[in-house]
Amino acid sequence: MTTDTVSVRCGVRRVVRFATLLAALLGLAAFGAVDGSAAAGSSTEDIATGGSIFQKKCVGCHTIGDGSLLGPDLGNVHRRREHAWLVRWLKDSETMVETDPEARKLVAARGQSRMKSLRLSDQEAQQVLAYIEIESAKKAPGAATVQPVLALIDARSTQSPSVAAPSEAPAPVLTGAAFEQAKNLYFDRCAGCHGLLRKGATGPNIEPAHTAELGAKAVQNILTNGTPGGMPALGNEGILTPEHVRLMSAYLLMPAPDPPAVSFEEIRESWKLLVPPASRPKTPVTKRQWDNYFGVILRDAGKVAIVDGDTKELAGVIETGFAVHILRSSSTGRYFYAVGRDGRVSMIDLWPETPTLVAQVKGCVDARSIEASKYKGYEDKLLIEGCYWPPQYVVFDGQTLEPKTVVDITTPAYDTGEALKEVRVAAIVPSHHGPQWVVSLKESGHVAIVDYSKPGFPVTKKIAAERFLHDGGWDRTKQYFMVAANMRDQMAVIDVKNGTLVTKFKTGVRPHPGRGANWEDPEYGWVNGTTHMGEGKLVIYGADPARKPQHAWKVVREVALGEPGGLFIKTHPKSPWVWLDSPLSNEPNGTRQICIYSKKEGKIDRCFTASARGRAVHFEYNKAGTEVWVSVWDREGELIVYDDKTLKEKTRIEGDWLVTPTGKFNVFNTAGDVY
Ligand code: DHE
User: Considering its fold, how many domains does the chain have in total?
Assistant: First the structure.
């Protein structure tokens, strides 16, 4: 037990004595819930546990007796609602909204800020309610004057009850330097999920109209504590200092500045050819088995490590620049292409004795995706970079990174026709059956087909799918592209051969498959699956339209994982297992959890904590499909290597150079899109 826990528990013990005394004085009925007191039957440990759950899952949106934030003030909520109703709400608010008239009324009154299901057990819900009851009593006698929840919420539709209404709040002022600092912090930490223009995508819309409604205090709470829906606790995790949190809360109440454009000329000027093709080796010089190299993203170091998959030795470290995000391989595997959040593309040649940076260019202000040409005749010839900002993609020469063209992809929303300023390029996959890249347009909800055999590398088709497309990958045949529309809780299936949307279907709260995983299910034929950011659930859907058309693109299995915050799922054609992580869980232990699903048994074989620190994130197989590598995402990072047959840990790769390792990409598997 830590000192903190001891002091919390002692404090709680005093509070319980006070509460019991108060209950005795007022009579239990007055003190208790509408149909019973959670605190009366709870131990001090229960209340302490309730307090710690409340701190982790609720404080981003609620106070107890200190006024309304994103959600209502929960002071004395036990007096306003039946105990059983509150327990059900704490367990699964989303289902209640579908089935319970009171819950529907509550959400209708609150507009966009709908509460995610906390998925607490009965016992945990009791513990949280006991804690709220005790904390409400601490605020007595004023606590009794708290207004009923619905009345409070009704008031919020015209003005916020506890924080000043937007018109009454003094307009935040930031000086030039503070504004610049806040702008950079926003770009580094927030824009990926909420968009440079703050209109939302993986995270909600946080334009000033919404943040002003919350007020600075609520914004600070959310930045500090995160939310159960997957917003990280940036303050508590030490990513933002308290000063940063205050700065950001002011910045978020101000209109977003216009981000800059990037012209073809500027992209050309940024191009650096460090080693021309004629000066590169004609055959591999390295003695290492380079097609079993792993490229490892060292996120916060702005570097990529190349690790020998056979010997587990470090083959080289390449400076790639700010918050490098992913790697993709050229078709032959000889080159790794890295893309950074700052839009910089770095090309790494794996044939020299030491892997070597041979070219760099910057095609965007903000970017997440990159892919090579993989169709016969185009091997290692071309490269596409998708921009988050500006709304464009850039095509480069695959041997030199010389820019060839920039294509604007501004497209109206597929459903409403609304003109959009920000249309971000999310996942890109390379066709193996034709000269095409398949490009996801996040905000508009289209999947664009880019034909690189045509002059100018144009979009030849835009297929309406679903808004807020994010990540996805191929089915086993590489005819169907399955992509998550994560803010719409759906997967969309595109038939790339025929250029059509096959279907889309709901899976759960914010699916996040990475590139997904394909395997053969004993009952349903070929299937694919996704994990979820917003709930602890693996969802498996049929992906075998040729042999099992009755199950194709329908959810066939749902498997509970315990922890929300899942980002990646991985398997290999030779493996009996499917590996799942949950690095965005709200629980420190949950962030380090790995779960392994048995293809044969159709259920989770085991879940375990992989590390004592950091987060366990992203899986990659070696070339032979016999080992699984997992990153410990921490300043003092590690790579854990598991034997895929026995599931036992084989070794840990450590070293000063392993600063915040995240994604890993095996050359053979990445070049061949094996997943
Ligand atoms: Fe990623 C893939 C966007 C945060 C690790 N990430 C992707 C893709 C997109 C994306 C669009 C698909 C690329 C493709 O296939 O062409 N990622 C974003 C964001 O917008 C987001 C949510 C927020 C941000 O600010 O960037 C984000 N991503 C992260 C991380 O914080 C992760 C966990 C750690 C890191 O290093 O950045 C992370 N994303 C990854 C990885 C992949 C990825 C490892 C590739 C998975 C694969 O197996 O292909």
Answer: 3
